[in-house]
Design brief:
Elements: E1 4-7, E2 22-25, E3 28-35, H1 49-66, E4 74-81, H2 87-97, E5 104-109, E6 120-127
Parallel strand pairs: 4-5
Antiparallel strand pairs: 1-2, 2-3, 3-6, 4-6
Amino acid sequence: MSDIVGIPSPHSWDAPFRYSQATRVGDLVFVSGQAAVGPDGNIVGEGDFVAQAECVFDNLRKVLEAAGSSLDQVAKVTIYMTDTSHFPHILECRERYFSEPYPADTTVEVTGLALPGLMLEIEAIAVVTD
């Protein structure tokens, strides 16, 4: 029996990709990169970084809650951006969606993400407190 538990996806479009939106190991939740993809599998806010960021954080929240955690329990994020000129908006999002102590963070500029049109992806590690 494995100590790794897959968290069921809130989406139907991701089943063919053979990954878990998150896995839980003990009191830790490892969340796959969340992007601006809506429940229908289409990109949300194409060309609009602010709209994509809101969708990304909403998707992150949903997956964390499905795993028994929350945005308040995030210990580490890795943020992938196709254009770091949008970084000031990331600072605003950190203040809006996270609380002190803020998560450890790595931000990386990349040339592309999984789907053309995506501008942002965030993966996270969080704790579960029962």
